[in-house]
Design brief:
8-stranded mixed beta sheet; 5-stranded mixed beta sheet; about 375 residues; 12 helices
Length: about 375
C-alpha cells in the first residue's frame, strides 16, 4: 500500500526563483532514497506537489518540507492511500506552469502516469492538480503571514475581574480591540453524579454563574454561560428558573447567551427544542458550542436555529495547515452566514490559526493566544519584519 500527500505552499519573498533547478536535483536524490515519487507544479508564486510512496518515506519527506524556510503557508490538501503509484518511478519532476499552456500541462502530467488504469478526472489527486492549474482554488485559499509579523500586547484593563470559584473568559474581536462577550465558568464542575443529580447540579451552577457575573461584569456586557442540553430537556421549569435568576442578578435576558455543547448527546430532542423556544421567547440567545466536535452537526443547526455557533477547538487546531479542516470550517461559515448566525472560534493558540479564520470571515475569538495568563487580554499589533 502506498501513501499520497498533496500540499500547496507559497514561495518565500526573499527566495529567488533561480534556485529551483538545484532544489529539484536535491529533492530528486532524497525522493529516490525513500522510494517516493514527487510531481511538483510551480506557477511563479505557489508550489503544488503530489508525493506518493511508502508511508514512512512520504511522511519523512513531507515533515522536511514543512520546516523548509524557502516557502511558507504549507497546506496539506489531501492524505490518501492507494494500491499502486499514479506517477512514474521514484524521484522528482517539475512542471513550471509559466512554460506550459494550461490546455496541455494536464496531458503532460497524464503522460507520466504509470498506474494500471488510465488516470481520469475522477481521480481525487488529479482533481486537485487540475484546480491548481486552472487557478480555481483562490476562493478557498487564504494567504497567512508568518507568525512573527505580529506582536501580542497585554492590556490588563480590558480583562474581566475575577471572582472566587469562577473564571471569566472574554470573547474578543482582536482587530477591533474590543471584548464582545464574557464567558462565566464555574471552577468546580463534578461529572461523577448520576444524570438526575447532575442536571440539578448543572442548573444550580448556571444560576450561581449568573448571580456572580451580575456583580462582576460591567453593565450591558453580553454574558456567556453554558448549560447541559439535557438540563433544559429534563427539568420542566429550568427556563423559568434561569429567567428569575437573571432578574435577581440585575441582568436582562437580552444580554445572556446560553451555550449548549454539540458533543452532549440529546436523547430528548423534542423536549430540548421546546425549551429552546421558551428561551428565545424570554429574550435569551442560544449558542451551539463545540460545533464540529460532535455528531449532530448541520442537522442540529437546521433543527434548532441558534443565534450563535462556537466552533470547537478540535477542528480549529492547526487549521492553517489542513485543507480538509479549512473546507469544513468554510462550509460552516458559509452556512451560518446564510442563516445570519454569528460564528465564534474557540481554542485559538497560534497566530496562524487566528489569521486564517479572520481571512475566512470570523470576527469573534477565544483562546490562550488572546488570554495567555488569564489576567489580561493580548491584542495583536502588526510589525514589519526586516
Amino acid at each position: 500500500m502506498l501513501t499520497t500527500i498533496i500540499y500547496r505552499s507559497h514561495l518565500s519573498d526573499d527566495v529567488p526563483v533561480n534556485i529551483l533547478p538545484g532544489m529539484i536535483e536535491k529533492a530528486c536524490e532524497l525522493n529516490t532514497r525513500h522510494q517516493v515519487t514527487g510531481i511538483l507544479l510551480f506557477n511563479g508564486t505557489h508550489f503544488f506537489q503530489i508525493l506518493e510512496g511508502p508511508e514512512e518515506g512520504v511522511i519523512d519527506i513531507y515533515t522536511r518540507i514543512c520546516t523548509d524556510k524557502r516557502h511558507h503557508n504549507v497546506v496539506e490538501l489531501m492524505r490518501d492511500y492507494s494500491p499502486s503509484r499514479r506517477f512514474g518511478n521514484a524521484g522528482m519532476e517539475l512542471f513550471d506552469l509559466r512554460e506550459h499552456d494550461r490546455a496541455t500541462v494536464l496531458q503532460a502530467v497524464l503522460d507520466k502516469g504509470t498506474s494500471r488504469y488510465q488516470l481520469t478526472y475522477d481521480d481525487r489527486g488529479l482533481q486537485f492538480l487540475r484546480t491548481f492549474v486552472e487557478a480555481r482554488e483562490k476562493e478557498n485559499y487564504f494567504e497567512v503571514l508568518p507568525y512573527d509579523y505580529w506582536d501580542f500586547i497585554a492590556d490588563e484593563e480590558a480583562a474581566p475581574a475575577s471572582e472566587e470559584g469562577f473564571k471569566f473568559i472574554p470573547v474578543v474581536d482582536p482587530l477591533g480591540r474590543k471584548v464582545t462577550a464574557i464567558e462565566a465558568i464555574p471552577e468546580d464542575q463534578p461529572t461523577s453524579l448520576q444524570d438526575a443529580a447532575r442536571f440539578e447540579h448543572d442548573l444550580a451552577a448556571v444560576k450561581q454563574c449568573l448571580l456572580k457575573a451580575g456583580m462582576a461584569i460591567p453593565d450591558g456586557v453580553t454574558l456567556y454561560v453554558t448549560v447541559l442540553p439535557m438540563t433544559l430537556a429534563t427539568i420542566p421549569d429550568a427556563v423559568d428558573q434561569l429567567v428569575s435568576t437573571i432578574e435577581a442578578a440585575g441582568l436582562v435576558p437580552e444580554q445572556i447567551i446560553l451555550g449548549v455543547s454539540e458533543t452532549q448527546v440529546i436523547s430528548l430532542l423534542d423536549e430540548f427544542a421546546s425549551a429552546v423556544k421558551r428561551l428565545k421567547q424570554a429574550g435569551i440567545s442560544l449558542s451551539i458550542d463545540n460545533f464540529g466536535d460532535g455528531s449532530a452537526g448541520l442537522s442540529l443547526l437546521a433543527y434548532i436555529q441558534p443565534d450563535r455557533v462556537r466552533i470547537g477547538a478540535g477542528i480549529i487546531r492547526d487549521i492553517h495547515r489542513s485543507g480538509p479542516k479549512q473546507a469544513v470550517v468554510q462550509a460552516v461559515i458559509r452556512c451560518c452566514s446564510a442563516l445570519e448566525i454569528n460564528v465564534i472560534a474557540a481554542g485559538i493558540t497560534r497566530p496562524e490559526e487566528w489569521m486564517w479564520l479572520e481571512a475566512a470571515g470570523v470576527i469573534d475569538f477565544q483562546g490562550s493566544l488572546f488570554t495567555p495568563e488569564g489576567a489580561s487580554i493580548a491584542w495583536p499589533e502588526f510589525r514589519e519584519v526586516i
